Amino acid sequence: MSKYFSVLRINWIHSLEYRANAIIGLFAIFSGLFIEYQIWSLIFENSNYTTIPFQGSDKDFTFIQLIVFIFLSIIVGQLKSSWVTSAQMIYEIRLGLINKYLVRPISYFWYHFMMFLGVNSLFFIVYTLVIIFIVILFPNIIFTTFISIFGFIISLLVSIYLSYCIYFIMVCFAFWFGEARSIVTAYNLGMLMISGQYIPIRLFPEKVLAVIDWTPLRYLVDFPVSTAVGLFSLNEWLYNFLFSILWCVILTFACFIIYKKGVSKYEAYGQ
């Protein structure tokens, strides 16, 4: 286990060398929020809405509540991103550089998971400070109960792990196609919409939301953010949490199975 924490520590130190990335990440968040603010301002002004209903909730959101919800969604979406780590893995597979992992008593899956945490650790700290700033500005909108605070932390950790698993599965396509960056890029673009990062999925049509509810996408952004704003009772949160854990188990098994098949193909070609 200590070898994996060494990977985490090394990549944490490495992330400090690229502090500008955190500033760029903040710029991406605030520019995205500015665009969202302008769009929803026009919607509320032209429709004469004072509140907007959320699917699966008896709570209607005011303009400010909706903007805070979207702001937090953008932050969670950034925290779960594994683009850097996935690009590194694709590079290693494509150029036949994974031999060093195959001859060592180390798991390729867990090694890169700890690498992912280390690379993103500076973002975790910076975005946590941003979230604290939001709480100070809007104390009556988010983290108003114990379950909203504790549940958000737990569901965010689950979201980060689920996101990594999905990225890992896509990376494994590089064993068959040699290149998987286009798959990851397409996934990233799709997730901006259907994961709730920029458009809350609770505003989707009921039938669309019913389909998303049966996928792990439901737990990437909407679950942590809905927890933070208090849309769940304790029983509802536990129900969703158990389903998210089930998806963690399913996707973990899928990662190891697909990776094993990929390595078999990799070794068969004598890489």
The helix count comes to 12
Across the major sheet, the strand order is 1-2
Q: What is the CA-atom radius of gyration, in angstroms?
A: 20 Å
Low-confidence stretches: none
N-end to C-end Cα span: 28 Å
Alpha-beta content class: mainly alpha
Strand content: under 5%
Could you describe the 3D structure shown?
The protein is mainly α and 271 residues long. The chain has one domain. The chain has twelve helices and two strands, in the order ααββαααααααααα. It has helices at 2-16, 20-47, 63-79, 83-94, 99-102, 108-137, 146-171, 174-177, 181-194, 206-212, 222-228, 234-268; strands at 51-53, 60-62. It has a two-stranded antiparallel ribbon with strand order 1-2. Strand 1 (51-53) and strand 2 (60-62) form a beta hairpin. Helix 1 (2-16) packs across helix 6 (108-137), helix 2 (20-47) runs antiparallel to helix 3 and helix 3 (63-79) packs antiparallel against helix 6.
